[in-house]
Design goal:
2 domains; 0% strand; 89% helix
């Protein structure tokens, strides 16, 4: 009986650890820091590519894909909620 209890305790602890990892992953996916970091990387890469191809106003033009990313991040939660509602 004690072995079964110990085994159940180990399984519960493993589930708690997994839940903590999943919650941390979810927090990262929705964090403002992650969104800012991706937007900054998008801007830098777009500006670099535009510079390398000789585009005029490459710094200003790099705002276009960055703005597109930021808009998609803001609209996706709305679309997700709508999609989940239709699946029920």
């Amino acid at each position: 009986m004690d072995d079964k209890i110990r085994q159940l305790e180990k399984e519960i602890e493993a589930i708690k650890e997994r839940n903590a990892r999943v919650e941390a992953g979810k927090a990262w996916e929705t964090s403002g820091f992650r969104i800012f970091l991706i937007a900054a990387i998008t801007y830098v890469v777009a500006a670099l590519v535009l510079y390398l191809i000789g585009a005029k106003n490459f710094l200003l033009s790099a705002l276009v894909p960055t703005a597109g990313f930021l808009l998609s991040v803001q609209t996706l939660p709305i679309v997700k909620k709508w999609w989940i509602g239709r699946r029920k």
